Amino acid sequence: MPNPEEIREKAESRFGRRVALCTAVYAVFLAIAGLGGSNATKEMLLAQQQSSDQWAFYQAKVIREHQYRGQKMLLETQLAEPSTLKGAERAKVEALAAKFAEEEKRYNAEKKDIEKDAKKLEAARDHRRERHPYFEFGEVLLQIAIVSASVAILSTSRQMFWFSLVLAVLGAGLTVNGFVPIFKLPFLHHH
């Protein structure tokens, strides 16, 4: 007849090995969640920096546009006074005013393209910002799952193991949702 103490020790060690294996899987998902969160943060910061650069470029174009407009208006004012400019000198000022008008239009067109690019970069930043909390909360749940699984091994508590499994599944689900948006949790979005 088998010794009941031996049977209990084998069952406990088998349980402990299974829970330890599950804990290793939790740790893999935790690493993936950490990597996803880190990448989302880097991409969000990069898009923010690029967007800021585009807006600075936009502002430079606006300043240049206004400078050309001001110069053009000054020349047009000179041209409006009939007695000040004659012949070739008048033609030169008219040509310069026309050139300034063209430059003003060119800067106006260029700034519109830059604005579109800046807004695209802002949208990319906002997308990453929306994904990031899923990685963060996934990491937290996976960390708690690992601690709970460790407690389950030490206490041989099946309830604690099931609790850790539920947390790990939720954490993995949030992590996957960080990579591929499947659902949206309103409390994770601060709009």
Provide the succession of SSEs: HHH
Helix content: over 70%
Structural class: mainly alpha
Distance between the termini: 68 Å
Sheet with most strands:
none
**Compute the gyration radius: what is it?**
33 Å
- Percent range for β-strand residues: under 5%
Tally of contiguous helical segments: 3
Descriptive report:
The chain is an all-alpha fold. It has three helices and no strands. Helix 2 (87-155) runs antiparallel to helix 3.
Keywords:
191 residues; mainly alpha; 3 helices
Describe the protein's topology.
Blueprint: H1 4-80, H2 87-155, H3 158-179
Give a nutshell description of this structure.
By secondary structure, this protein is mainly α.
